[in-house]
Design brief:
two-stranded antiparallel sheet, alpha+beta, single chain, 25 helices, four-stranded mixed β-sheet
């Protein structure tokens, strides 16, 4: 049976559809099970900073519903400068719809809901598209969509980055694009709306999806020239309508992102960072069944396991591709698209098994192309996931077609195919995402006692100040629905008033840098860019005692800087919660401020309203 057109759409859901929906939901709940078992007492283990950031974003989404303000900028964090929220992953198209959950149960529960929905809805969206427009077999659609929704890369990014996992608009974007010629105006408007929605969820995923869909369309046209000549005019009309719709809706937000207050340029790390090792495609991810047996460390972050399909699945995909190559233009276009994006994911210099080959990759030619320089090369493998899902669905459909004849044929082929399929898929099944305990919100914050100390327009300064490696103050603030303001924080912003190069957090200030150095003892920061908010590693100094003396010694200049910084941050109180290097931080802070703290409902508190003035 040769399949040149997608099967007709079947609108009514059947038992198989309900079963797929339930299984995908159970899969999402199992993947996030460690979080759900103690939702108020756990944090995702490998990425506290991003977990915290998205709880903060959920709190702000709820705030936008109850107290409308500029959605593209905030003064709730990084006082007095503020943060350009359009230039950060504010995920408005999920945080605002989840506002009722946040308002009722708080951002802690809302984050778990957001993460679970991201996995579930993405798998469900691909299932809908595959089952209605790619194959007749619901089982084939289920297996292909399951890989798209729960692939190792999806689980890796679920360890703190739900905006990268929430790809449920992408299947419909792909479908609308491929069907533009049928109703160019209506589907063009729909595509423009989907692009707009995805832009407010995650722009990097939108960009990568646009590249992949564009490459697929061009290749499909080359492999099916007759259809391309017949439909190109109407397709281009629909594409123009989509561009006009999305352009009108996104013009102002995009202008704000790139030219608004506190916009930045580039990334805070080299554009070629987080590339994939070529061996990563045939190994298993750390958070998978196969990875629990043997997952080699290939120099990438656990959150960037963007391939890790294992050799059986890769081999199966190659076999399906070879077998269906002459039968389907979809397979040819998809396979070449996957190959292109797999090569690009290897970055500017190809590595094989942690060995730097010195061989330049094609991505090197794109390093400084606008928009490409804002994407992470390893994430180009997202396109490979979708193609593998499509090949699995088509392969299962082909096997079912072959075995639909005699009983002898079914008995011969079906068990063999099932064994091969299970052998390829079981090792990539996800394991529950690891979590760690989270410190409780100090009673001073949780009880609302802070309100008696912090007048309108003033801030609570934490020791140390919030940053990637110490995001807790953002969690405390989020628990109050952002009822008060904080200086600094974990976000992306410019390196200075005249330097627009991107950095994590605010530009350095002397007091923040000093307190952060004390917090890290006995280690020292080794950031990508200078300052007090390192995202990179920390290293142990050769002389720990000298480093400790250097960090904790307070001079007259340090005291002057502290007073100037507190005034700049509009501080009302300075607080220190129990935790790492608490005694050292307390002594250093007291030396900086010139007086001792008082213990107030779970925190050491320095009331600085009199010395700050204003």
């Amino acid at each position: 049976m040769r399949r040149s057109e997608p099967p007709p759409r079947r609108a009514r859901p059947g038992r198989s559809d309900v079963a797929a929906c339930v299984v995908f939901l159970l899969g999402a709940l199992e993947t996030t099970a460690h979080l759900w078992r103690d939702v108020s007492g756990r944090l995702l283990a490998s990425n506290h900073g991003d977990h915290t950031l998205f709880e903060w974003m959920l709190a702000r989404g709820a705030l936008l519903v109850t107290h409308p303000e500029n959605p593209f900028f905030t003064h709730r964090m990084n006082v007095p400068a503020g943060v350009n929220m359009m230039a950060n992953t504010s995920a408005l198209s999920m945080t605002i719809p989840l506002a009722p959950v946040t308002l009722i149960w708080g951002p802690v529960v809302a984050f778990a809901v957001m993460l679970t929905l991201a996995l579930w809805l993405t798998a469900l969206a691909w299932y809908y598209v595959f089952s209605r427009h790619l194959v007749e077999s619901r089982f084939g659609a289920f297996v292909g969509a399951g890989l798209c929704g729960f692939a190792p890369a999806m689980v890796a990014h679920a360890s703190g980055q739900p905006n990268l996992v929430a790809q449920f608009a992408i299947p419909f974007m792909a479908l609308a694009t491929l069907r533009l010629a049928g109703r160019p105006v209506r589907r063009g408007i729909l595509l423009g709306l989907l692009i707009t929605y995805q832009a407010f969820l995650n722009e990097e995923v939108l960009f990568l999806a646009g590249l992949a869909i564009g490459a697929f369309v061009v290749l499909y046209a080359l492999f099916d020239r007759q259809r391309a000549r017949r439909e190109v005019r109407r397709f281009l009309i629909g594409l123009g309508v989509a561009a006009l719709t999305g352009g009108v809706l996104l013009a102002y937000p995009v202008y704000w992102q790139f030219f608004g207050p506190h916009a930045y340029h580039g990334l805070p790390f080299p554009p070629g960072s987080y590339q994939l090792d070529a061996v990563a495609y045939v190994t298993y991810a750390r958070e998978s069944v196969g990875g629990r047996v043997a997952a080699p460390a290939l120099g990438q972050s656990p959150n960037e396991d963007n391939a890790s399909f294992g050799w059986p699945l890769v081999a199966l995909a190659v076999v399906v591709t070879v077998y269906l190559w002459r039968r389907s233009a979809l397979v040819r276009a998809g396979a070449v698209t996957a190959l292109i994006f797999a090569v690009l994911s290897l970055g500017p210099k190809i590595e094989i098994g942690n060995h730097h080959t010195g061989v330049p990759g094609p991505y090197r030619l794109l390093l400084y192309v606008p928009l490409v320089d804002l994407s992470v090369p390893g994430r180009y493998a997202f396109a490979v996931i979708v193609v593998l899902g499509m090949l699995l669905a088509l392969g299962i459909q082909r096997v079912l077609d072959l075995t639909s004849g005699s009983r002898r044929t079914r008995l011969h082929w079906a068990p063999l195919w099932l064994i091969v399929l299970l052998g390829a898929l079981i090792p990539v099944l996800p394991t529950p995402i690891p979590t760690v305990g989270r410190a409780p919100v100090p009673g001073f914050i949780a009880s609302g006692q802070w309100r008696g100390y912090v007048p309108e327009g003033r801030t609570i300064v934490s020791v140390p100040l919030p940053a990637y490696r110490f995001p807790d103050p953002m969690l405390w603030q989020a628990s109050t629905r952002l009822a008060y303001q904080i200086p600094r924080g974990y976000f992306l912003g410019p390196s200075g008033t005249t330097n627009r190069a991107a950095r994590f957090g605010a530009p350095p200030r002397p007091t923040a840098t000093k307190l952060y150095a004390v917090y890290l003892l006995p280690y020292q920061p080794s950031p990508y860019v200078g300052g007090d908010t390192p995202l990179g590693t920390v290293v142990k100094p050769r002389d720990p005692e000298a480093a400790r003396a250097r960090a904790t010694t307070v001079t007259a200049a340090d005291r002057r800087n502290a007073l100037a910084d507190l005034r700049y941050w509009r501080a009302a109180v300075v607080i220190l919660a129990p935790g790492r290097n608490e005694a050292l931080l307390s002594r250093t802070t007291s030396a900086l401020l010139g007086f001792q703290p008082t213990w107030v409902n779970g925190v050491w508190l320095w009331d600085v309203r009199k010395i700050v003035g204003g």
